[in-house]
Amino acid sequence: LRCWSNIPFITMPLSRAHGKSFAHRSELKNAKRIVVKLGSAVVTRGDECGLALGRLASIVEQVSMLQNQGREMMIVTSGAVAFGKQRLRHEILLSQSVRQALHSGQSQLKDMAIPVLEARACAAAGQSGLMALYEAMFTQYSICAAQILVTNLDFHDEQKRRNLNGTLHELLRMNIVPIINTNDAVVPPPEPNSDLQGVNVISVKDNDSLAARLAVEMKTDLLIVLSDVEGLFDSPPGSDDAKLIDIFYPGDQQSVTFGTKSRVGMGGMEAKVKAALWALQGGTSVVIANGTHPKISGHVITDIVEGKKVGTFFSEVKPAGPTVEQQGEMARAGGRTLAALQPEQRAEIIYRLADLLTDQREEILLANKKDLEEAENKGRLALPLLKRLSLSTSKLNSLAIGLRQIAASSQDSVGRVIRRTRIAKDLDLEQVTVPIGVLLVIFESRPDCLPQVSALAIASGNGLLLKGGKEATHSNQILHHLTQEALSIHGIKDAVQLVNTREEVEDLCRLDKLIDLIIPRGSSQLVRNIQKAAKGIPVMGHSEGICHVYVDTDASVEKVTRIIRDSKCEYPAACNALETLLIHRDLLRTPLFDQIIDMLRVEQVKIHAGPKFASYLTFSPSEVKSLRTEYGDLECCIEVVDSAQEAVEHIHKYGSSHTDVIITENENTAEFFLQHVDSACVFWNASTRFSDGYRFGLGAEVGISTSRIHARGPVGIEGLLTTKWLLRGDNHVVSDFSEHGSMKYLHESLPLPQRNSN
Known about the structure:
Layout: E1 2-4, E2 7-9, E3 33-38, H1 40-43, H2 53-68, E4 72-77, H3 80-104, H4 119-139, E5 144-150, H5 152-156, H6 158-173, E6 176-182, H7 207-217, E7 222-227, E8 247-248, H8 269-281, E9 285-290, H9 300-305, E10 312-314, H10 324-340, H11 343-359, H12 361-378, H13 383-389, H14 393-409, E11 417-424, E12 427-435, E13 438-443, H15 449-460, E14 463-468, H16 473-487, E15 496-498, H17 505-508, E16 517-521, H18 524-533, E17 547-551, H19 557-569, E18 578-584, H20 591-602, E19 606-609, H21 611-615, E20 635-641, H22 644-654, E21 659-663, H23 667-676, E22 681-684, E23 703-705, E24 713-715, E25 721-728, E26 748-749
Parallel strand pairs: 3-4, 3-7, 4-6, 5-6, 7-9, 8-10, 13-14, 13-16, 14-15, 17-18, 17-21, 18-20, 19-20, 21-22
Antiparallel strand pairs: 1-2, 9-10, 11-12, 11-26, 12-25, 23-24
């Protein structure tokens, strides 16, 4: 805890040796000293007369939050000219109206021309008002701000440089935010960009060069340049092929075309890039981003500091492999080639991968052993997650069997005709299955997921991006290598990509132009986070697995305990494990009920009582906090219902539409339950644990979907396909089918071609 002027604030343990910029966005959270440069387009209104007050207030709030975290914030601001122009225009209009009224003797105003206002005069009139506004805004957060006006001469005069440096350090030491601006009231006209060539020379011609010079002089960790564009594009923003550059490296400027400069201000994007590269060479990391977009301006600065993928990040360190954007493009191109293969060729790839899993067993298990040892040494994984992380010979054999099932069932998955219609004579329509496109599968702790999902993507002709947990790095790398080796037999190893960069999951979920479907495999928290972060990309999955087993009055004594034990105790961490046990009221205080309780106690299952169940007991177990709970452990809730109808209503109210079971010998009751429970999987006299792609005979699954879309329950090959329409005609036009046209619609259903019986 530090105190200046009797105001306490929390400091963060942030420190690093200056002299080398951050190599990755994820490191920006360690930035201690930060300069935020606000371009004229960010600070001013659209009419260029006056300030964008709402935007400015949001920026001040973000800067204040970072300052109160213990960071040292500085602002290089524009806006004095615009603020001064507003004030001077008001004064001129007022003066002209008074003179006109005196001259004409009338109060009616005529059209009055506003003279062109000289920028230096506007700056002189606006500086004090701009600073007063900053002071008022920062005061709301108990932060003091101080104004510093500089010119180019202040950096070329050694004594002035030392004075400026000392002043800034003293202000930062006292937890004061310096507000820095070029002294536009006296600054000379801008000169051509003849410098900016070396590390030691940069003239202060605009606030871009000022911010860069200041950042290097003050040994700043991060320079954030806010403008009115999202960042740096490979061609002028707005053009058809323009793509935002995520990371910009020195030397890349040769491949960039610069557009016109901003509507206001002295510099354009070219000036910003030159200033950014100069600062980067001086050891300061730089991000150029949009500070005007209404959807992101309220958190753009904090997002950048948190390492999120916002704007263009300047880095001196090029990654060894391709960027995730490049991987997405390779996956799409590879997926299209994959879809064009013959079904036998795709099956051949999967058979080859199955063989590699058994042939390379020792190498796979050795890599997995490294992951297990690292996880145990760091102590970062709970026992259930360690179990998921572990591979074994039996697991690899089961994987290979599942992959061969996928290969055998994939012969007619892509390009299968599911509807044929004769629209008119010689005009036939077909609906055929096609791949979805590029899938992003994010999974935790389960390296066996990688070959399963890869095989399903290959069988369905989809490109694939895989993002595994860092706890399974070694296992994932060798399994991905084997997947690419199998794909190489037909020259398409790029169709399946493993994302190894430091990409955050939230950033991957924003790549809506590269990814067509996101499938999360992991904890309910992971799924919820991805569903929240996905921007414009569908997410297939389930956020919770609250599975029920209802024991009816006509249940078989022999079946009840076996099914409940298997559903809860076989693998309690699974999403298809029993979480709530519903008991018919007539079974309370019967030998069957006692057997259920005794079995759960023997298996060391902790019981939570639902409200109705607790009301029947004198001494009950702990009452459940919520009937909508996924325990994921040896715990479950027991609740009482009066009928199968009430059981269905309970499941609809508290369930997650995953898997629900009835145990009964009454066929009518069972059929009522099967037809009325609206879940992805509904079973009669069978364990919830059967809800699985392998057990369903799908070979494997990419996940279990509880969404009400085309794919529900365990999702295999069929769930990774969509359709397209093929119309074959012969010089047909719609006008021929008009009231007086020569042709009539037939709309006849045609027989489908025979499916491959193999």
